[in-house]
Amino acid sequence: MYLFDPFRVSKRAAGLVLPLLLGLLAGVFAAGAAAMVEPGRAAPGFRLQNLDGDTVQLEQWKGRWVILEWTNPDCPFVQKHYNSGNMQALQQFAAARQVVWVQINSTNPAHPEFRSPSVMRTWNQSARAVPAQAVLDPQGIVGRAYGARTTPQMVLINPAGVIVYHGAIDSIRSANTADVPKATPLLRQALEEGLAGKPVTTPSTTPYGCSVKYA
Questions:
Q1: CA-CA distance, 215 to 212, in Å (whole number)?
Q2: Residue 152 preceded by cis peptide, ω within 30
Q3: What are the start-end ranges of the E strands in the chain?
Q4: Which of 24, 55, 112, 170 is the most buried (most CB within 10 A)?
Q5: pLDDT for the residue numbered 64
Q6: What is the average per-residue pLDDT within 38-42?
Q7: How many angstroms separate the CA atoms of 42 and 164, rounded?
Q8: Total of domains in the chain
Q9: Are residues 25 and 93 located together in one domain of the fold?
């Protein structure tokens, strides 16, 4: 004869439900940690030190177009765009149009891939990178504020301080330099449209690359 055992039922239910619940909660927290600031919203303000130790802040570029680039020299996806010259070409394209390019490294200091200001400066020089500013975000405050989850990850901010593009640099999600000329240049397209006074056709895409190495 079957005897109802509430403890046995609850244990069995817990064994089935608890993993699902934990998975859902993990997904919720992960999504919250990685939620990108959507285009159409005001760009979060920030104050960071550049590689020379000077404080820079988003507010100082009010009235200008701004690009934020999350980087990590050790990431193969970042290397793809620097080794091919794609990132430098975009930086030069932006500079010629008075667009402020801010390169951000949000790697935490305890991670093996953390690079000091002097090492980052040397890397930029060897890569012939030409960002207007290169800054470190060692506590990850700015990266988390924007929902930066990969390197590279790109944000385009208009002169009113509103994000008009957030996502991938291009359309081919690989670390192969041969794919650069075949890809749709998503960031460049967004910048060209914005500078021409047009709405950005594709304001949000899914970024690809290495994970940002937060603490």
A1: 10
A2: yes
A3: 47-50, 55-57, 66-70, 100-105, 133-136, 150-151, 153-157, 163-167, 210-211
A4: 170
A5: 98
A6: 97
A7: 9
A8: 2
A9: no
How large is the average pLDDT for residues 183-192? 98
Residue 10: give the domain boundaries. 1-34
Q: What is the pLDDT of residues 75-109, one digit of tens each?
A: 999 999 999 999 999 999 999 999 999 999 999 99
Residues 2 and 77 in one domain: no
Q: Mention every residue, 6+ apart, whose C-beta is less than 8 A from residue 55.
A: 47, 48, 49
Q: Does 65 share its domain with 113?
A: yes
- Amino acid at residue number 158: N
Angstrom distance (rounded) from CA 201 to CA 190? 7
Asked if residues 175 and 210 have their Cβ atoms less than 8 Å apart, the reply is no
Residue 56 CA, chain-centre distance (Å), reads 19
Tell me which H or E stretch contains 186: helix 186-195
CATH number of the domain within which 128 lies = 3.40.30.10
Cα–Cα distances (Å) from 18 to 5, 32, 163, in that order, read: 19, 21, 39
How far lies 201's CA from each of 108, 153, 155, 187, 191, in Å? Answer: 35, 18, 15, 11, 11
* One-letter amino acid for residue 27 of the chain: G
Give the residue from 167, 180, 71 showing the smallest Cα distance to 124.
71
Q: What is the dihedral of CA 113, 81, 50, 139, to 10 degrees?
A: -40
Same domain, 103 and 166: yes
Pair 179, 107 in one domain: yes
Amino acid at 10: S
Six-digit token pair at 71? 């980087």
| 5 and 84, same domain (yes or no) | no
